[in-house]
Design goal:
heterodimer; A: about 70 residues; about 50% helix; B: about 190 residues; alpha+beta; about 20% helix
């Protein structure tokens, strides 16, 4: 370990199309549904009481597709 | 963290997070669209997109946060600042979850306070994907508000490799502005009284 390495942590803001596309990829891969269906289920409250960490992980991505 | 513009408030919010995450090496904070300064909507950031950070020894750390840029008329707190709306941190080793650190207050769940899910009595050397997780991981263990710096510090304390030997000092410095400007520490309903 180096004594004091100031590691670079960059910040990147994705555009709306990229954000939606990336979340669509994730929801297709993990839930087998489109991002539109995922957001509709989220808005209907279907994930409100989830403690499934992998679903929560996707829920935390929702602003990327709004 | 206040700013004279929404963009300045977001920069002030992100700077300590960048430095804290730097304790785990070179990484990227990914912001949702409009996340650098758009008012009136909930934004999110994630650590390295969907990937989190993986380090030697099978250590893995994920961080995600909802935040919002708000106006705050209190002297010294505005005119703009960023407030956290939810978070999720995960510490794992060799695909075994050690700690899930959650605060997701929206929805119907009875548990709207910050809470932990801890895998107690598990041996990451023997556990294999598909094996049942200990029952303790299902339990909501109420916690105070956990900062990103807390979570990074936990990960390093548990054994995740760091690139800094002064990581504890760095994390304490990064956490200081958050502790100064946050509106609650134990229960989100505290904020309603401020």
């Amino acid at each position: 370990m180096d004594a004091c390495v100031e590691a670079a942590v960059v910040v990147e803001e994705v555009d709306a199309a990229t954000g939606r596309s990336e979340l669509d990829h994730l929801t297709q891969d993990r839930l087998g549904i489109s991002v539109e269906e995922f957001l509709a289920r989220l808005d209907r409250g279907e994930y409100d009481d989830t403690e499934d960490d992998q679903i929560l992980r996707l829920v935390m991505f929702a602003p990327f597709a709004r | 963290m206040p700013g004279n513009s929404p963009q300045e408030a977001v920069e002030a919010f992100l700077l300590p997070l960048q430095r804290a995450i730097g304790c785990l090496g070179q990484n990227k904070i990914t912001l949702s669209p409009g996340g650098r300064g758009q008012l009136g909507r909930t934004h999110a950031w994630t650590l390295n997109g969907d990937h989190g950070v993986t380090r030697k020894g099978g250590w893995h750390f994920e961080a995600q946060m909802y935040y919002e840029i708000i106006t705050d008329e209190r002297p010294g707190y505005g005119p703009y600042r960023v407030t956290t709306r939810a978070y999720r941190y995960r510490i794992a080793r060799s695909a075994v979850d050690i700690a899930r650190i959650h605060w997701h207050p929206k929805g119907k769940s009875d548990e709207k306070r910050p809470h932990l899910h801890l895998a107690l009595n598990i041996d990451p050397g023997k556990w294999r994907p598909g094996d049942p997780m200990p029952d303790t991981i299902k339990e909501h263990l109420p916690s105070g508000r956990m900062t990103l710096e807390d979570a990074v510090g936990w990960a390093i304390s548990l054994g995740m490799p760091t690139v800094r030997d002064d990581w504890a000092t760095v994390l304490a410095e990064c956490q200081a502005p958050h502790l100064q400007y946050r509106s609650w520490s134990q229960d989100p309903t505290e904020a309603a009284t401020i």
